[in-house]
């Protein structure tokens, strides 16, 4: 666009004409939040704050690489490159370097693999202009090292359990790193490592497939050669509840060892000062043993409720109780058979291979420990299920041993040692309540996610003569939920039992 400006002087004077030229295609200098799919001719100054390694897509048809970019206002967005561009930019795009990026492809972020960090996502292709900003640049200066981390603390993880699609970022100390192995039911390759925070809360973290082979190998090698404990930053990590509360890698996950964020440096220094304490014994907040996955129980600040209150609680959720445990039904089945691929439970006791309609292939059946246990406090008694490694730990038997005794040899389990172990002991128990429908009724079940023995005090004895609760049924009452007064946004959620009203 041309803009003419003129000025006419007095007669016999020269006429002066000014010509101002504006470019017809102005390039907009913007930040991440100002860029949408319809935005044209833009340029944005960003720093690479996370860069994953190249990985194969799920359908094995292409290779991709994820990056997280941060602008001058600390707004972050995910960018992705594919096969050809990965090789083209391999020598250019480096972690913590600053770039001017122009006209990347912008599209709405997919939600198939969890909640994205931004509503849009960039694709860096051959038509994208990328200019690195170096220290010697005359006009632009590199961005300072990043400090922004959206970390989920360990004591907040139980609140996210009901959301199976949740993906979180974690910062944690690595206490132990197991060998590469094949998972018992699915036969997928994995490696299990034990993490903890500065409150000594511990979680099992499963590195699946190539994460176990590559990042897991890096962690194992550094733990064998370096004198101090490692700290890892895991992004887009998933939460698993199948064998108790644990963490696992997912499709979009990235892992970095000993990152340079100020929060990570502080945790590294704390782990260095407390290494002897951290490695000396399992945390008192876990139910860890040498062979059983550590699982957190009753995080600090959680409100305990009575067993009687659970029956009027919402139809789905997680609760914490203090109760005694007992196996009153000694003649129940203590294990089930399930498909090694999809984990679907089957009624048969025959372990021969079969055609699984869900997996669409011939597969085998494997045993999984699963049984009912009674929970008793001074208000009521109810029954909950306990399974997998948590059940094996309680019985001090593997699922294979249980199947051999109860199904192959058709003998009853000897539970004398279990009764002795549980006798007159109080446990802090993490429960999940879920519901399922049949005909015109809705039924609710309780599952034990973790437990830990509580040290008895003189006033903590439990009355062993409570009223037996009938099986949990949500169809009999209409639940009116009430909530406690809201506190700070980072305070643990409190539970106030809802008031049941008679259904008309």
From TrEMBL:
InterPro entries the UniProt entry points to: NA-bd_OB-fold (IPR012340), Rep_factor-A_C (IPR013955)
Pfam families linked to this entry: Rep_fac-A_C
Transmembrane segments: none
SUPFAM superfamilies found in the cross-reference section: Nucleic acid-binding proteins (SSF50249)
Stretches with biased composition (Pro residues): 495-504
Stretches assigned to the Replication factor A C-terminal domain: 321-447
Source superkingdom: Eukaryota
Region span, Disordered: 455-504
Residue spans of biased composition, Basic and acidic residues class: 455-473
Annotated protein name in UniProt: Replication factor A C-terminal domain-containing protein
Protein source organism: Solanum stoloniferum
Lineage: Eukaryota, Viridiplantae, Streptophyta, Embryophyta, Tracheophyta
């Amino acid at each position: 666009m041309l803009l003419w400006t003129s000025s006419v002087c007095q007669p016999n004077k020269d006429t002066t004409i000014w010509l101002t030229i504006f470019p017809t295609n102005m390039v907009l200098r913007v930040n991440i939040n100002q860029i949408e799919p319809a935005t044209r001719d833009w340029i944005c100054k960003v720093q690479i704050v996370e860069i994953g390694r190249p990985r194969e897509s799920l359908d094995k048809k292409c290779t991709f690489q994820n990056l997280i970019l941060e602008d001058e206002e600390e707004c972050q967005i995910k960018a992705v490159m594919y096969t050809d561009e990965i090789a083209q930019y391999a020598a250019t795009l480096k972690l913590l370097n600053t770039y001017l990026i122009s006209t990347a492809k912008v599209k709405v972020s997919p939600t198939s693999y969890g909640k994205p960090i931004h509503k849009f996502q960039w694709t860096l292709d051959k038509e994208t202009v990328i200019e690195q900003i170096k220290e010697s640049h005359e006009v632009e200066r590199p961005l300072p090292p990043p400090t922004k981390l959206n970390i989920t603390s360990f004591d907040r993880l139980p609140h996210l359990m009901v959301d199976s699609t949740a993906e979180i970022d974690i910062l944690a100390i690595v206490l132990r790193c197991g060998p590469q192995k094949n998972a018992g039911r699915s036969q997928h390759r994995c490696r299990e490592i034990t993490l903890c925070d500065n409150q000594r809360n511990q979680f099992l973290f499963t590195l699946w497939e190539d994460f176990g082979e590559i990042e897991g190998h890096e962690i194992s090698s550094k733990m064998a050669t370096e004198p101090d404990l490692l700290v890892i930053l895991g992004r887009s990590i998933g939460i698993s509840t199948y064998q108790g509360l644990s963490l696992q890698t997912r499709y979009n996950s990235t892992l970095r060892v000993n990152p340079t964020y100020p929060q990570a440096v502080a945790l590294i220094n704390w782990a260095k000062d407390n290494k002897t304490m951290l490695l000396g014994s399992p945390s008192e907040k876990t139910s860890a043993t040498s062979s059983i996955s550590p699982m957190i129980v009753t995080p600090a600040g959680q409100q305990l409720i009575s067993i009687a209150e659970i029956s009027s609680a919402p139809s789905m959720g997680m609760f914490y109780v203090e109760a005694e445990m007992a196996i009153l039904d000694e003649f129940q089945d203590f294990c089930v058979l399930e498909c090694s691929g999809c984990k679907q439970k089957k009624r048969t006791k025959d372990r021969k291979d079969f055609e699984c309609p869900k997996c669409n292939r011939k597969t085998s059946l494997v045993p999984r420990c699963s049984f009912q246990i009674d929970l008793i406090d001074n208000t009521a008694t109810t029954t909950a299920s306990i399974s997998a490694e948590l059940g094996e730990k309680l019985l001090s038997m593997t699922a294979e041993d249980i199947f051999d005794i109860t199904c192959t040899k058709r003998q009853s389990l000897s539970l004398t040692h279990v009764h002795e172990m549980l006798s007159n002991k109080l446990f802090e128990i993490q429960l999940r309540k879920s519901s399922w429908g049949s005909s015109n009724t809705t039924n609710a079940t309780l599952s034990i996610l973790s437990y830990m023995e509580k040290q008895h005090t003189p006033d903590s004895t439990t009355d062993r003569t409570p009223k037996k609760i009938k099986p949990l049924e949500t169809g009999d009452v209409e639940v009116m939920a009430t909530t406690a007064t809201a506190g700070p946004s980072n305070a643990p959620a409190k539970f106030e039992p809802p008031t049941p009203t008679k259904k008309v």
